[in-house]
């Protein structure tokens, strides 16, 4: 019987991105790795699922301890297909990333990287997402690497309760340590660039700036990142605002 | 000065769907209505944003108390564009739906309807999503209508704290009343139908069944719906699992 952990990897930057290649290399010493990832970029795909088109996937590599599948769907589709159609047992851990760009603060709800993590979490699989503050094609993961390995090892050892996963983000460059933090309150602003097309019509590109509503909050993930720490936000898929239930019950409904 | 509430409407079934047409009719007596919705179905689009393609929108109707815009983006794109590029003031309320099909339990994370609601919530706008247990093209909204109107009126009167929105679902047919509930724990199973194409390749359609992990929990939204009640789940966009922070701090990170 194979006692090595089964590690499912995915991401939202696509199967050929540096982030998932680096993650694959980091995870192979920890167990048997199955990569099931989108065939190209799916940034900002959140928990989107593909319901109006058929989905396909192909095995593109198989060797000792590593199998890789490429899929035309979203990150969430990838996790669903891996669990339903490919793996013969539940993975011990799902790791998503390493995303090129942060998924801190409210970005957790837009992130395809974290969408895949939530999908694993819903299915009672230990699930972690990793992201780095570098949108370039070839980020330097060397400072982050020992933290990624340690966090996954520790998670495999300690486990998490049902419905809770980890959103891990790293600053660029040297790292001072780890802060367990909460999701920073904030929003996006100036989100579009308006352009004219050659026929006089107009169109918009999404862009924008994140506005941090609480830049001084030292327990927030944005603060930790700005100060040079890796932020680890325990994140739950039950979005119920329990503290508001009594309030809403007092409404005349 | 115009003192009528400004009401922003969107959905994920598309601007011509029965659900948003019904919602528009219900909301017009309550204020000035701006509809900004996708030009076709965007079910399962979650909080997806369009970052790799340009986005366009067109004004398709304008009359006293009502303006309608059609957009090629996701529900979340629609809210962002409406707030950034179209409206000259912050809406008093954002209402999304009425979705053809439930967004109860874990479906809140896949739902384009609720993605739009979260986008409003992030921007400090009172935001509510409405869905009905009927996937057909022409649901009967007549039983739900008085509840929709009353819930929006009451929300405008009472407000919600920052970061909290409402996820409102209705059963099909007669309604016994309203239950303020929490998100039911559960997951999807048997999610794909495998088919062969004429060239011998295979592809998958997403389908599946929701497995309710706690069918007897009388405080859950699935229970309320099954018993004939409208479920109102106060929902928060801060996904931090606060109760796990001390636990994770004890890990060797």
Give a description of the structure.
- Two copies of one chain form a homodimer.
- By secondary structure, chain A is an alpha/beta fold.
- The first copy, chain A, has a single domain, classed as Survival protein SurE-like phosphatase/nucleotidase (Stationary-phase Survival Protein Sure Homolog, Chain: A).
- The first copy, chain A, is 23% helix and 30% strand.
- Chain A is built from six helices and 13 strands.
- In chain A, the strands form three sheets. A nine-stranded mixed β-sheet of chain A has the order 3-4-2-1-5-6-7-13-8, sandwiched between helices. A two-stranded antiparallel sheet of chain A has the order 9-12. A two-stranded antiparallel ribbon of chain A has the order 10-11.
- In chain A, helix 1 links the parallel strand 1 and strand 2.
- In chain A, helix 2 packs parallel to helix 3.
- The longest helix of chain A has 14 residues.
- Chain A is globular and about 55 Å long.
- At the A-B interface, helix 2, helix 3, helix 4, strand 8 and strand 10 of A face helix 2, helix 3, helix 4, strand 8 and strand 10 of B.
């Amino acid at each position: 019987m194979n006692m090595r952990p089964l590690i499912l990897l995915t991401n939202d930057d696509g199967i050929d991105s540096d982030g998932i290649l680096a993650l694959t290399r980091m995870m192979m010493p920890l167990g048997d790795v199955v990569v099931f990832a989108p065939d190209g970029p799916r940034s900002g795909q959140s928990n989107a699922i593909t319901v109006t088109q058929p989905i396909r996937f192909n095995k593109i590599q198989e060797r000792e301890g590593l199998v890789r599948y490429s899929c035309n769907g979203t990150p969430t589709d990838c996790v669903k297909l891996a669990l339903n159609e490919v793996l013969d047992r539940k993975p011990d851990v799902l790791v998503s990333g390493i995303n090129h760009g942060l998924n801190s603060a409210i970005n957790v709800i837009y992130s395809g990287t974290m969408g895949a993590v939530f999908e694993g979490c819903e299915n009672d699989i230990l699930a972690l997402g990793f992201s780095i503050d570098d949108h370039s094609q070839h980020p330097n993961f060397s400072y982050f690497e020992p933290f990624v390995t340690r966090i996954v090892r520790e998670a495999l050892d300690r486990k998490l309760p049902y419905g809770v996963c980890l959103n891990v983000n790293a600053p660029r460059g040297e790292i001072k340590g780890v802060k367990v933090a909460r999701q920073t309150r904030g929003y996006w602003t100036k989100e579009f660039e308006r352009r004219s097309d050659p026929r006089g019509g107009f169109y918009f590109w999404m862009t924008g700036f994140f506005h941090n509503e609480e830049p001084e909050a030292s327990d927030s993930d944005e603060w930790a990142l700005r100060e040079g720490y890796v932020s680890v936000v325990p994140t739950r898929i039950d979005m119920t605002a329990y503290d508001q239930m009594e309030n809403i019950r007092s409404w005349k409904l």
